[in-house]
Design brief:
By secondary structure, this protein is of the alpha/beta class. It has 2 domains: about 240 residues, Glycogen Phosphorylase B (Rossmann fold); about 180 residues, Rossmann fold, CATH 3.40.50.2000. It has 18 helices and 12 strands. The strands form 3 sheets. Strands 2-1-3-4-5-6 form a 6-stranded parallel beta sheet, with helices on both faces. A 4-stranded parallel beta sheet has the order 9-8-7-10. Strands 11-12 form a two-stranded parallel sheet. The longest helix has 18 residues.
Length: about 425
Amino acid sequence: MRIALITPGSGDHFYCENCRRDLDTVRGLQRAGHDVFLVPLYLPIGAASGDVPVFYGAVNVYLEQMVPGYRFLPRFLRRFLDALPVLRWAADRAGSTRATGLEAMTLSVLRGEEGKQAAELDRLVEWLGEEKPDVVHLSNALLLGLARRVRQELGVPVVCSLQDEDTWVEAMPEAAQQRLWSCMAERAEDVDLFLAVSQSYAAKMRGVLKLAPDRVRVVYPGVDTASRQPASPPPQPVLGYYARLAESLGINLLVEAFIELCSRPGFADLRLVAAGGMTADDASNLAVVRQRLAEAGLAERVQIEETFAPEQAREILGRFTVLCVPVPAGEAFGLFVVEALSYGVPVVEPRCGAFPEVIEQTGGGVLWEVGTPSSLADALAPVLLDPAYRAQLSAAGLAGVRRHFDLDTATVPALLDAYRQVARPA
């Protein structure tokens, strides 16, 4: 089967769940013998896309939205603005990953052939027509504006993953949210099948997109467990964080819980390691975090890795005693949880979003009732202090990930079954 997976690139500066899910999906499908290629939109996504150009380049898309008559700019100048050095520069800018202020542009892209980026859609559809995929897979519902033209002109089915659209849309003003959800619900009619990353997120998106139950299947993201071995626990307790270093994902909350723990008996040697990279938007908050740690006299016991290097995941996660990314609003999935468990690192996560679903299936962690930093410290303390309890969680979590969230034995077969469900007769 020949599959085109269209994904918005993040610029590779931070831990992006959707990017990592899509990159792993491509590798898993290729290992299963399928001809699959990654098509990046907006910004680059590592080296995995090979020679495939970046479509809807972030600079061109923005200028098309903001500058009247921009579509008449000579094609060679537009190609220059799609060059990788220019897009990498754009990725360094805060606005490239910030929803606020991009309401009109998000709606325009969702309107597809009716939006200001119609020329970009023409270019993408023409290129896909030359590549002749059997199925086109959209990374998330913010790309629904592509589906109608793809189905009409290529005559192939379109499937669409559902993950984290809500975090983008709900960062916008209420009026903009309503317009976006309404447009997405309309454009959802152009998709053959939706693939949600968890049962809880499937339920949410069925509601906001007005989807019948049989139009949504759950396909859990997976990790390549065959290439991973449990790490040896560090000699001294290390509280770990592995996600984008953003206030919205709970880094400030975790720092306050760490400070609370350090004031309690038994935690004289506790350290905090936070990794996952950042955007320019996160810099000011991280300065506040560092100042808070300095005031508490704990700066020397904390390591914050501001540069993201995905190839260092094993080395970073292997240094953790326990992982905690206390996203107050929960996550559509939380791939960092499965990544940690695949190395035998237990987790403590909020009882919201998909976290209860993932932890119930793996048994590798503890759920925290969202509350104060002190209550988070209470949830973390038993895991950090009790080696036997940690070992129990670690063993259960590792076995659970191999059983339910293995890329090759769970995720890829489920994906292929979904593709076959919508495949056109030969």
